[in-house]
Design a protein that fits this description.
homodimer; 256 residues; alpha/beta; Rossmann fold; N-(1-d-carboxylethyl)-l-norvaline Dehydrogenase, domain 2; eight-stranded mixed β-sheet; 45% helix
Chain lengths: 256, 256
């Protein structure tokens, strides 16, 4: 079992802290910019809270940084510890932002983390990197205590997964928001769409989405597309988006 | 109970035919361009099959046209019946395509219909229109035998629902396909994303998507956006799509 200090108290730090604590590791300290947040999470994890990076002690083996991407490097440099392993949990940033420590790496769970509900790490891909063999092994061993799917993933592939998740979750959510707005403009509720969304996503869980494309774009149903563009005439940006998505679909499904 | 003839044998005709048959209506004839398809569906519904529109008889009260949008008008004109109600099941086309009959309307269930599984019409919005009061009442009464949520919906609103569904299902499916392709290029599987998609859509079932937006666009995380655009450098069209979706998200969530 390892001694771990958590730098951060957001969704990732909270979810990871709970999973590591539950797996039997000792959480030594919890840092947050907010004293209240540090105290709350530290209490839950039987750890000591602090809102001052200068108060971070050297009693942990591994320091997990779950702070905003742009704060990783400065936070790492401000930690008054040496000879310890630092790891950050970003899907996009290089481990080399932690080079101020001699031993550093990545600890990136590919799962939606929230402090509101328990996160299941066991079935989640947990990506690790290390700046040397020993650090990689230590982080992988830690990862294996909470996930059955630990994998060493190179930076470029980790970034590709992150990018794919932006298309699959963030951008799709925006399209749901567009639907909600279009329905509201007709006095209709997004509730009308929820059963259709659920039914379609159920199919995506079992089949390749590339095999599930339907709609006027792939059918080259130009008269329907014209009606849709006309309905969007007051929304120039949505009209542009509709056209780009339609032509993109037609590009990958050539007419037969 | 009504006597109904189905013009078409695709997903909509099959799902509707089964539901109407189950509700106790008589299915008189089933027409399909394909004799085999007509025979198969007619057998299931205890109806007479035909592949020739000229063989359609006047023994039904209501003729439901579930053919391709562009075939609705010509198919209606070719029907050798008079004084009967015609209704089509398109989400986008005007009922007036059926004007060759004196009594016509819309019978549009807002649900994903497939011949592979039973479709639950009871909880689905079923939109009706009629060219006069009596026709509207007849179609609404028929609709109420299979759906608890029958509503008279004007053409423009029906089209808006159809458009919203294109954003929420067809376009999101394309984004899943993009994710799948990006992962494949890194030797990774779409399986890695499925749990994240399921978790997010579960939240969309319960909350407004407008409240669930996350990701680099809304966070104005420009360094992550730059990494993503760089990863897409070989895909000019995806780069354009990424940029448009990102700026669209930023437009509806102004910086605070």
């Amino acid at each position: 079992m390892a001694a771990i200090t958590l730098i951060g108290s957001g969704n990732a730090a909270t979810a990871l802290g709970r999973a590591l604590h539950k797996a039997g590791h000792q959480i030594v300290q919890v840092w947050s910019r907010s004293e209240a947040h540090a105290a709350q999470l530290a209490k839950e994890l039987n750890a000591a809270p602090t809102a001052d990076l200068q108060n971070i002690n050297g009693n942990a083996d591994i320091y997990i940084l779950s702070v905003k991407d742009d704060a990783i490097e400065a936070t790492a440099k401000a930690l008054p510890v040496s000879g310890k392993i630092l790891a950050h949990t970003s899907g996009i940033k290089s481990k080399d932002l932690l080079h101020s420590s001699g031993r550093y790496g990545i600890f990136y769970p590919f799962v939606s983390m929230t402090r509101d509900a328990e996160t299941d790490f066991h079935t989640a891909l947990l990506m690790v990197e290390g700046n040397n063999e020993e650090t990689l092994k230590t982080l992988a061993a830690l990862a294996q205590t909470i996930s059955d799917r630990v994998r060493q993933v190179e930076e470029r592939d980790r970034q590709s997964l992150h990018l794919a998740a932006v298309f699959a979750n963030n951008f799709t959510n925006y399209l749901y928001t567009v639907s909600e707005q279009l329905l509201a403009e007709s006095g209709l509720s997004f509730d009308e769409l929820r059963p259709l969304i659920a039914a379609h996503v159920q199919r995506v869980m079992e089949q390749s989405p590339g095999q599930l494309q339907t709609g006027p774009a792939i059918r080259r149903d130009h008269s329907t597309i014209d009606v849709h563009l006309d309905l969007l005439s007051k929304h120039q940006n949505l009209k542009e988006l509709y056209s780009l998505l339609t032509s993109s679909i037609q590009d990958i499904y050539p007419t037969t």
